[in-house]
From TrEMBL:
It comes from Bracon brevicornis. This is Uncharacterized protein. Signal peptide: none annotated. Keywords: FAD, Flavoprotein. Its cofactor is FAD. SUPFAM superfamilies: Acyl-CoA dehydrogenase NM domain-like (SSF56645). Coiled coil: none annotated. Gene3D superfamilies: Butyryl-CoA Dehydrogenase, subunit A, domain 2. Pathway: Lipid metabolism. One of its GO terms (molecular function) is fatty acid binding. GO terms for biological process: fatty acid beta-oxidation using acyl-CoA oxidase; lipid homeostasis.
């Protein structure tokens, strides 16, 4: 109940509506001052487990959440300021 950001695997959809598949993003999920979930974000606890109760598990649901292109972990691909997708991996079947 303290995390303000997540590292999330999600579909990258550019402004032209093209889906470029699964990419990794840093996504803010809570207000850092109040810890209240941000608009479009639902977070919850998974509760007691049969074992490993020392491991804190939860869930996050995103509903139409948009993040800036700067939040893309972009070692292999990026989105230019004008919204163009570029990737060092030319063969789409070899991306994630």
């Amino acid at each position: 109940k303290q995390a303000t950001h997540t590292v999330t695997f999600a579909q990258l959809i550019t402004p032209d509506g093209v889906n470029h598949g699964l990419h990794v993003f840093i996504v803010p999920v809570r207000d850092p001052d109040t810890l209240v979930p941000l608009p479009g974000v639902t977070v919850g606890d998974l509760g007691e487990k049969m074992g490993l109760n020392g491991v804190d598990n939860g869930f996050v649901i995103f509903n139409n959440v948009k993040i800036p292109r700067e939040n893309l972990l972009n070692k292999m691909a990026d989105v230019t300021p004008d919204g163009k997708y570029v990737s060092r991996i030319k063969d789409q079947s070899k991306r994630f």
